[in-house]
Amino acid sequence: MWNPVDTRFYAKKLPVAIAAIDDSSEANFIRTLLEQLNIVTLLHTIGTPNDFLQVISQEEEAPPFLVISAHGDQGGLIFGEYIDEIDVSSLQDGVMTPSTIAEAIRLPGTVVINTACSAGVKEAGVAFMKGEIQAYIAADEDVTGETTALFLMHFFHQLVKGRSVEDAWEHAAAYDEESRLYRLYLREGIYKVADDGKKIRIEE
User: Which domain of life is it from (predicted)?
Assistant: First the structure.
């Protein structure tokens, strides 16, 4: 498990890794936001599909929290086109599909938050959970960048205050209508926040 020295300070810091795919502007904003909450961050600037596959297959070096900053398409992650020298065998028409992620992911105990549009659909959530992660959080429809920022701010602020992952997600997802699109995948089931702000199980 990634364990920076900051986690052993007198005022211990929460460690969060960020994987920036394609456009790093959102990822840099997320990094700044988290550091304002006294969180120590590690930014992975993803250059190729294989770079990302290495990040999600770290096994014993896995971070406690991983935020994936990316664009999405029907549960997949958009990488785009590359020159001929780059290995794109893990992509289909420029997209890394959930099935490819399911084969590669090995992040035992990690909480993964995915900002890509539609990354919370069941196919994607089930794929990420194959990696023995603790939880997977993503919106199952398109959300605005403002909603993403607000969700992350509320979620990590609650964690810094000592709340559990489940409680922090419930608080953040209850903020407004768009925030309620963020789903929580746990080993025992899939959850959403209903209109009354309470957590309900969608399915096991």
Answer: Bacteria
